[in-house]
Specification:
The structure is a homodimer. Chain A is of the alpha+beta class and about 375 residues long. Chain A folds into two domains: about 10-260, L-amino peptidase D-ALA esterase/amidase; about 265-385, ArgJ beta chain, C-terminal domain (Ubiquitin-like (UB roll), Roll), CATH 3.10.20. The first copy, chain A, contains ten helices and 15 strands. Chain A has helices at about 50-55, 80-95, 115-130, 135-145, 195-205, 240-260, 275-290, 290-300, 305-310, 375-380, and strands spanning about 10-15, 25-30, 35-40, 65-70, 105-110, 155-160, 165-170, 180-185, 225-230, 265-275, 325, 330-335, 335-340, 350-355, 365-370. The longest helix of chain A is centred in the middle third of the chain and has 21 residues, at about 240-260. The radius of gyration of chain A is 21 Å and the shape is globular. The interface between A and B is large, with 68 and 68 residues.
Chain lengths: ~375, ~375
C-alpha cells in the first residue's frame, strides 16, 4: 500500500545494525523509468545534515533512486559526514547501476554520531539484493525508516490508470518549515517534466506537512522526495494530479500527527479572520506551540484564556477586542470575553478542534498539533534520541 | 526584607476570598512621599488585561499607590473588566486619600472570570486598615501576590543612606517581553525625576526579566512598577542607582527562575559570537524554548544535537559550520561537530550552563530557562490556572 504501488518502482529494506534495537534500519527505492522526473523539498533549518546537503546539491529535477538509513541522522559530523553521505550515494548508485548524482540520500536518528560506514556498506549490498516491486517491499521500506515511530505511515491514490504511493516517518523534532520529516512519494503518472512534480509537491507541502507542529522543533534532516516515472503512460489532468498529491500528503501528515511522541489528543487549530492566509498560519502555529495551551489540552481543560494569551503574542494583525474562540464548535470566547458555559465544554475525546477568529480579514489556515503529555516528556528525557 | 525597607513606604495584605485556597490574595503599597516619581513597564502581549490597560493609561511618571489582587487576572472580561479595574483604583484611592489616576492596578490569576467585586471592595477596606511600614507588612504583601508560586520573592539593596526594596511573583506563563510578571520596587532614593526611574528600570528589565523564559508563554498581565519617594534625602550617583536597580531586578529574576513551575534544573543559555547582542538574545531564547532541549535537560542528557537543531532555526546570522557548544564549561560540539567525550558530560546537578558560539561576531546575551518536567505538565494540565 505504499511506494511500490505505482508501476515501475522497486523497494527494499534490511537490518544493517545501525539501530541499537536491531530493527530494520535501511531502505532503498529505485525508479525503473522510463522517466526520472523528481522534485524534492528540504528543511529550512540553517543547521543541515550531510545527506540534506548532498541531495540538495544534486536536486536538478532527476533522481533515479533514494537511499535511506534510520538510527543515525549523519548531522553535525563535519567533513567526514559529508564524505559518508557521498559514499552512501556512490555505493547505492553502483549497486543499482545509476549515476551517484541521481541518488537522493536521507538519514534520520541521533544527531552527532558518525555513521558506521561498514554496516552501511553491507546494508546497501543487501538492499540491492532485496529489491522488489512487490507491495511487501514497500511495506518493509516504510518500516525500516522508522525511529521512535510506533507505526508505519503509508498512503496511496488511485487515479484512472495511474497511481501515487507514499511513505513517511517522523514523530518528534517535528515542526517542518516548508519541508518535512522524511516522506517519499512515487507515481507512475506521465508528467510534462520535473516542474509539474515540483509544482504539485510544493503546493501540497505548504498546506500539509508545513502545518504540522508537534513540538516546535525543526529537524536538521527533513526531506520530501517525489519520484515520477510515467510508467503508466497516462498523463493525468494537472488539477487532478495536484489534488492527488495534496491528498496523499495530507493523509501522511495526519498519520504523522496521530503517532506524534506522547500524543493523547489530536488538536487542530484553525485561525480565521486574519489579514492573510500566511498570517493565519503564523497565528495558528503560535497557539500550537504554546506549552500552557498544550498542557491544558492534555488535561481536557477548556482553558481558553491560554489561547488568548498565546495568540496575543503572534506577530500578526489582530483586533484584541474582537478575538473569538471555539472548542469543538462551541463558542468559549466571543469578542475577547468568556462565553456562557465556556468552562464546562467537554474536551475528553481524542480530537479537539480549536477555532480562533482574529476579527480583521479573510485569511485562514489550519495547523495540526498535539497535547503536551507526560509521555512526551518521558520519551524525550529518558535517553538520547 | 521587601518593599517596606525603604523609608516612607507602607504595605498591607489581606484575604479577600478571591483565591479558592483561602490564602491571602490582595496587597496594597502606599508611597508616603515626599516625592512620587514612578516608572512602569508592561507586557507586549496584544491581548492585555484590564488592569494593564488602566495602569498604562495613567502611567505619567507619578503613582502614589499600587493595588494588587491574585487569583483572578481580570483579563478577557470586556468592558466590565475595564470598569472593575477602574473601580479597584477608585476604591483604593479613596481608602488612602489619593487621586484614582495616581493608583497602579495589577491583577494575576485565571484569565476570563469576572472579578468578585464585593470581595475586592471589602478587601480594599481591610487593606487600608492593615497598612504599616513594618517589615512584616512587606512580607505579607509578597505572600498575597503569589499564585502557583511556592515561595515569596523579595530583594533589598542597601545604598549609603538609601535603599531599594522589591517583591515579585510569577512561575508560569513566563516569557516576559520587555516587561515581566508582577514586580514592585520601592526606593527612598532622591531622584531628579521620573525619567531617572524609567531609565534605570528599562535598562534593568532588558537584561533580567526580559531574559527569563520558562515556557515561551507571555502573560496578559505582566507589570513592573518602581516607586521612588526621596524620603532618604540622599541622591545616589546615577551609575550606582542604575546598577542597584539592575542588581535587585536580577535577584528577583533568579528567584522567579528557581521557583518556576515544575523546575528541576535552572538552565542558563549564553550565546556568544552573534552579529549583535539582540541577535544573541533571540538565538538564546529559541534554544530556551525548545521542548526537546528542555526534556533533555530534565533527563540530564547532554544531547547537544538538540541545541544545534534548535539554534539553527533562530532568525539570526550564524555560520552553521562554526557553531560550538559547551555544557558547564565542557566543549560538546566544536565547529558543528561532536567533541570527544560529549556524550559523557555530567549534567546531574541542578544548574546547567549552556554556551553557544555562533561564529560570526561579538554579540552576546544570556537567557535563563528551566527544564520541561513531569511536574510542569502536571501543574498545567490538572486544573485551570
Amino acid at each position: 500500500m505504499g511506494v511500490t504501488v505505482p508501476q515501475g518502482f522497486r523497494a527494499a529494506s534490511t537490518t544493517a545494525g545501525i539501530k541499537p534495537s536491531g530493527n530494520p534500519d535501511m531502505a532503498l527505492i529505485v525508479n525503473d523509468g522510463p522517466e526520472f522526473h523528481a522534485a524534492a523539498m528540504f528543511t529550512r533549518n540553517k543547521v543541515t545534515a550531510s545527506p540534506v546537503r548532498y541531495t540538495k546539491q544534486h536536486n536538478d529535477g532527476q533522481f533515479k533512486a533514494v537511499i535511506v538509513n534510520a538510527g543515525n541522522a549523519n548531522a553535525c559530523n563535519g567533513a567526514q559526514g559529508d564524505r559518508d553521505a557521498a559514499q552512501m550515494a556512490a555505493e547505492a548508485a553502483a549497486a543499482v547501476g545509476v549515476d551517484p548524482h541521481d541518488v537522493a540520500v536521507c538519514s534520520t536518528g541521533l544527531i552527532g554520531d558518525l555513521l558506521p560506514m561498514d554496516k552501511v556498506s553491507s546494508g546497501i549490498a543487501q538492499l540491492a539484493e532485496n529489491l522488489s516491486d512487490d507491495v511487501n517491499a514497500g511495506e518493509g521500506a516504510a518500516e525500516a525508516i522508522m525511529t521512535t515511530d510506533l507505526v508505519t505511515k503509508q498512503s496511496v491514490y488511485h487515479g484512472d490508470g495511474w497511481s501515487i504511493g507514499a511513505m513517511g516517518k517522523g514523530v518528534g523534532m517535528m515542526a517542518p518549515s516548508l519541508a518535512t520529516m522524511l516522506v517519499f512519494l512515487t507515481t507512475d503518472a506521465k508528467l510534462s517534466g520535473p516542474n509539474s512534480a515540483h509544482k504539485a509537491l510544493s503546493s501540497a507541502t505548504a498546506t500539509t506537512f508545513d502545518c504540522i507542529d508537534v513540538d516546535g522543533s525543526t529537524s536538521t534532516n527533513d526531506t520530501v522526495v517525489l519520484l515520477a516515472n510515467g510508467a503508466s503512460g497516462v498523463t493525468p489532468d494537472e488539477e487532478e494530479f495536484v489534488a492527488a498529491v495534496h491528498q496523499v500528503c495530507l493523509d501522511i501528515a495526519m498519520q504523522l500527527q496521530a503517532d506524534a511522541e506522547g500524543v493523547t489528543k489530536r488538536v487542530s487549530i484553525t485561525v480565521t479572520g486574519a489579514a492573510t492566509d500566511a498570517e493565519a498560519k503564523d497565528a495558528a502555529r503560535v497557539v500550537g506551540r504554546d506549552n500552557l495551551f498544550k498542557c491544558a489540552m492534555f488535561g481536557s481543560d477548556p482553558n481558553w484564556g491560554r489561547v488568548l494569551a498565546a495568540v496575543g503574542m503572534a506577530p500578526v494583525e489582530m483586533d484584541p477586542n474582537a478575538i473569538s474562540v471555539s472548542f469543538n464548535g462551541q463558542p468559549v470566547c466571543v469578542n475577547a470575553t468568556g462565553a456562557p458555559g465556556a468552562r464546562e465544554v467537554d474536551l475528553s475525546g481524542a480530537d479537539v478542534a480549536v477555532e480562533v477568529d482574529l476579527g480583521v480579514g479573510d485569511g485562514t489556515a489550519t495547523v495540526w498539533t498535539t497535547d503536551l503529555s507526560h509521555s512526551y516528556v518521558e520519551i524525550n528525557s529518558a535517553y538520547s534520541s
